[in-house]
C-alpha cells in the first residue's frame, strides 16, 4: 500500500477520535453536566479504550501482516459510533432518575451498556497506529507489538495525568502550581544522566514556580479574595463606596453584587424581582428556584421584595457558594445545591411559582440549557400559572442567540415575552401563561418603591416572541452563533465594549 494512503488513514482515524469525544461530551451534558470531573471521566474512558486497542492491535498486526482486518474493524466502529447517540438518548435519562431515586445498580447498568457500545470503536481506533506501523515496515519481526507497547504506555500515562490533574492536583494546588508539579516531574526524568547544570535548570525552576505559584494568579487592585475553581477564576471586588462584586475570568461581566443595607436595584437582577408579580397567584411567599445562584444577589432581592419567599438556589461552582457565604451575606435561609442546573431538575420533584435561569457566563450560555428539552423540564417544574425567566446574553443589536433561544421557548410555553436590559448585554424572557404583562401592571403599585419605575418601563417594553425552529439536544449551535457575534463585534471599531 502506498505510504500516502497509510498517512491519510492515520489522519482520518485521529480526527474521528477527537470529533467523537467532543460529540460524546454533548451526549452526557444534559444528564450529568459538563463539569471538569465529567470531562475527566469521559477523556479517561476514551484514552483507556485507545490504550487497550493499541496494545491488542500491535499483537494482532503481527499475526495479520495486512490491513484488511483493520479496515473491517473500522467499518464496525463506524456503525457503532453512528448508533451511539440513539442508545445514549434511550438509556442515560433513566440513569439519572435511577441514581436520584436510590437505584444505583440500575443506573450503573444503563451507563455500562452505553460504555460497552463505545468501547469497540475505541479499540479499533487505538489499533490503527500499530497496524499502520507494522504494514508500513513490511516484515520486521515483532515491530507491531513493540510499537503497540510504546503507544499503550504513552496513552496510559495520559490517563494518569488526566485523573491526577482533574481530581487531585488542580483542586489542591491550582493551575500554576499544578503545571509546576508536572514540569518538575518531567524535568527530573529528562535530566537524568545529564550534568548538574541541566538538573538545576530543569528541576530548580519548577520548584521556584511551585513556591510562588499563588502569585501567578491575576489580582485586581480592589480584590478582597481570589479563588481558582475547576470552572473559573473568580475574584471578589470591593469599590470605594463598599459595593462588592463577583467577577469571573476576564471580568467582562459582573455575576453578583452586594451593597450592605441597600436594596437590589441593578438592571438585570431587578428584572428577576418582577417575575413573581407576573404569576397567576398573588406573590405572597412565592416558591422560587434559581438556576444559577451566583453569590446570591437574586436570592437576597427576592427575600427582601416578597416576605416569606422560599428560595432554592442551584450553583455549579462550589467555590462561588463559599465566596457567597463569606463575602456576600448569603444566609442559611436559602437552600443551596451545588451541581448542574439541568441535572438538578432531573432529580427534583418539587414545583415552583417562579423559576429563574441565569446560568450564562459572558459571552456563552451552556448549550444544554437552551434546548427545547430543557425548556420542557422547566415548564414541568412550574405550578399552573407559574412564570419562568431566562437571561440570555447579547451584544447591542446582535440577536442571533437571543432569537434562537426565544423561538425555542415559544415552542414550549403558551406565551413568551421579551424585554431588553439597558446595559446592551442582556435580554430577559418571561415564559408562562397569557396575561403576564397585565398582572405586572396591576401589581406595580404594591412593589417596593425601588422597583416601580422599572416595572412601569418593562410593562411598556415587553414584546411577544414568536415560535421558531427550536434548539434541541441533538442540534443547538449556540457557540457558533455566539462566535459569529463576537467576530462581527471584534472587527468593528468599537469592539466588544
Q: What report would you give on this structure?
A:
- This protein is α/β, with parallel strands linked by helices and 497 residues long.
- It has 3 domains: 3-173, no CATH class; 175-216; 264-490, 3-Layer(aba) Sandwich (Rossmann fold), CATH 3.40.50.
- Helix content is 55%, strand content 14%.
- The chain is built from 17 helices and 12 strands.
- The strands form 2 sheets. An 8-stranded mixed sheet has the order 7-6-5-8-9-11-10-12, with helices on both faces. Strands 1-2-3-4 form a 4-stranded antiparallel sheet, with helices on one face.
- α1 packs parallel to α3 and α2 (36-64) packs parallel to α5.
- The longest helix is centred in the N-terminal third of the chain and has 33 residues, at 68-100.
- The radius of gyration is 27 Å and the shape is globular.
User: What's the alpha carbon Rg, rounded to whole Å?
Assistant: 27 Å
Describe the main β-sheet briefly.
8 strands, mixed
CATH fold description of the largest domain:
Rossmann fold
Count of runs of 4 or more consecutive helical residues: 17
**Neighbour order of strands in the largest sheet:** 7-6-5-8-9-11-10-12
Low-confidence stretches are: none
CATH superfamily heading of the largest domain? Vaccinia Virus protein VP39
Termini, distance in Å?
56 Å
Compute the average pLDDT: 85
Structural class: alpha/beta
- What is the CATH level 1 assignment of the largest domain? Alpha Beta
Share in helix? 40-55%
Q: What spatial form do the alpha-carbon principal axes imply?
A: globular
- Overall tally of domains: 3
What's the number of extended β-strand segments? Answer: 12
Q: What portion of the residues fall into strands of 2 or more residues?
A: 5-15%
Q: What is the CATH architecture term of the largest domain?
A: 3-Layer(aba) Sandwich
Q: SSE order, as H and E? A: HHHHHHHHEEEEHEHEHEHEHEHEEHHEH
Amino acid at each position: 500500500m502506498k505510504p500516502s494512503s497509510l498517512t491519510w488513514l492515520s489522519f482520518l482515524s485521529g480526527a474521528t477520535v477527537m470529533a467523537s469525544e467532543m460529540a460524546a461530551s454533548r451526549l452526557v451534558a444534559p444528564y450529568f453536566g459538563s463539569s471538569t470531573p465529567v470531562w475527566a471521566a469521559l477523556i479517561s474512558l476514551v484514552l483507556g479504550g485507545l490504550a487497550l486497542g493499541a496494545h491488542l492491535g500491535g499483537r494482532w498486526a503481527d499475526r495479520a501482516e495486512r490491513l484488511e482486518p483493520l479496515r473491517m474493524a473500522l467499518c464496525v466502529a463506524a456503525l457503532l459510533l453512528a448508533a451511539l447517540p440513539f442508545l445514549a438518548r434511550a438509556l442515560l435519562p433513566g440513569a439519572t432518575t435511577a441514581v436520584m431515586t436510590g437505584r444505583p445498580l440500575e443506573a450503573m447498568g444503563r451507563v455500562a451498556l452505553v460504555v460497552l457500545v463505545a468501547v469497540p470503536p475505541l479499540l479499533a481506533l487505538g489499533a490503527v497506529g500499530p497496524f499502520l506501523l507494522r504494514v508500513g515496515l513490511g516484515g520486521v519481526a515483532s515491530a507491531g507489538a513493540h510499537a503497540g507497547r510504546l503507544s499503550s504506555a504513552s496513552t496510559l500515562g495520559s490517563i494518569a495525568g488526566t485523573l491526577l490533574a482533574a481530581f487531585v492536583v488542580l483542586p489542591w494546588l491550582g493551575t500554576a502550581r499544578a503545571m509546576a508539579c508536572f514540569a518538575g516531574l518531567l524535568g527530573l526524568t529528562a535530566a537524568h544522566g545529564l550534568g548538574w547544570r541541566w538538573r538545576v535548570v530543569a528541576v530548580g525552576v519548577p520548584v521556584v514556580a511551585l513556591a510562588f505559584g499563588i502569585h501567578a494568579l491575576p489580582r485586581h487592585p480592589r480584590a478582597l479574595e481570589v479563588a481558582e475553581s475547576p470552572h473559573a477564576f473568580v475574584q471578589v471586588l470591593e469599590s470605594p463606596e463598599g459595593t462588592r462584586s463577583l467577577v469571573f475570568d476576564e471580568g467582562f461581566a459582573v455575576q453578583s453584587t452586594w451593597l450592605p443595607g441597600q436594596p437590589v436595584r441593578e438592571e438585570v437582577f431587578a428584572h428577576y424581582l418582577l417575575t413573581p408579580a407576573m404569576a397567576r397567584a398573588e406573590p405572597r411567599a412565592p416558591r422560587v428556584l434559581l438556576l444559577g445562584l451566583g453569590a446570591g444577589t437574586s436570592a437576597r432581592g427576592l427575600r427582601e421584595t416578597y416576605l416569606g419567599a422560599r428560595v432554592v438556589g442551584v450553583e455549579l461552582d462550589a467555590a462561588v457558594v463559599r465566596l457567597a457565604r463569606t463575602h456576600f451575606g448569603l444566609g442559611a435561609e436559602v437552600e443551596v445545591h451545588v451541581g448542574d442546573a439541568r441535572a438538578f431538575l432531573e432529580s427534583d420533584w418539587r414545583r415552583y411559582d417562579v423559576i429563574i435561569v441565569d446560568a450564562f457566563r459572558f459571552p456563552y450560555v451552556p448549550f444544554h440549557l437552551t434546548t427545547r428539552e430543557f425548556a420542557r423540564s422547566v415548564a414541568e417544574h412550574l405550578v399552573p400559572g407559574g412564570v419562568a425567566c431566562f437571561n440570555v446574553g447579547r451584544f447591542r443589536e446582535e440577536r442571533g442567540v437571543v432569537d434562537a433561544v426565544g423561538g425555542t421557548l415559544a415552542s414550549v410555553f403558551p406565551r413568551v415575552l421579551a424585554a431588553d436590559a439597558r446595559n446592551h448585554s442582556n435580554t430577559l424572557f418571561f415564559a408562562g401563561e397569557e396575561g403576564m404583562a397585565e398582572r405586572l401592571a396591576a401589581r406595580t403599585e404594591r412593589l417596593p418603591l425601588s422597583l416601580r419605575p422599572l416595572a412601569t418601563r418593562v410593562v411598556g417594553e415587553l414584546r411577544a416572541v414568536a415560535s421558531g425552529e427550536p434548539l434541541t439536544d441533538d442540534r443547538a449551535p449556540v457557540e457558533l452563533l455566539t462566535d459569529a457575534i463576537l467576530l462581527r463585534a471584534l472587527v468593528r471599531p468599537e469592539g466588544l465594549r
